[in-house]
Specification:
about 190 residues; globular
């Protein structure tokens, strides 16, 4: 009789102790650090109103940020764009991936697509939910979302990828779409 109770306690502790880890990936300069700072600000102050953007530097290495939402806590591991070759060493224990694209940097779009395909084809991420963020939508001279998705062949990627994929347009600088990012993080379930 006592063993059954102990087993249930252990199972409950494992469920409660299981950290949800979300990887935040993308090329250098796409806005990953600013996105995290903005999301933290929204959660701390409960408002989508944004003031002037905080200063950021390119991430060399990784940053861990805990985001505590209404229903759960997610640890976001931002990995610097310059660390692309070793991203796979972080794939094992994550439940979701946010992949950011700088939609104002036309030159970088093709390399971002190649990086995305590499991430989506990684076996450890086959069950991870994926959010693709097209950032910097507030910048002048950007391609339309339809044009970017066409270059990425998003319809083909979504149809062939084993993961559930969501795409959003955001501006980490202005705050556009950030509440939707938090809603996505909160809705993702660990498999």
């Amino acid at each position: 009789m006592g063993h059954g109770f102990t087993c249930h306690l252990r199972a409950d502790r494992r469920k409660m102790g299981r950290k949800e880890v979300c990887l935040l990936l993308g090329a250098t300069g796409v806005g990953k650090t600013l996105l995290l700072k903005r999301l933290q600000n929204i959660l701390l102050h409960g408002s989508c109103e944004v003031d002037s953007p905080p200063s950021t530097l390119p991430t060399v290495g990784t940053n861990l940020t805990d985001l505590t939402m209404k229903k759960k806590k997610v640890t976001v591991r931002e990995i610097g764009g310059c660390m692309g070759p070793i991203w796979p060493s972080y794939f094992q224990d994550c439940s979701s991936v946010i992949f950011m694209v700088d939609s104002a940097n036309i030159v970088q779009i093709s390399s971002s697509c190649i990086q995305l395909l590499s991430v989506l084809s990684a076996e450890p991420l086959s069950n991870a939910a994926v959010l693709i963020l097209f950032n910097k939508r507030d910048m002048p001279c950007i391609m339309s979302l339809t044009e970017i998705k066409s270059l990425f062949r998003m319809d083909d990627i979504i149809a062939s990828a084993p993961q559930p994929i969501t795409t959003l347009e955001v501006s980490a600088r202005s705050g556009q779409g950030l509440q939707e990012v938090l809603s996505w993080l909160e809705s993702v379930t660990v498999k």
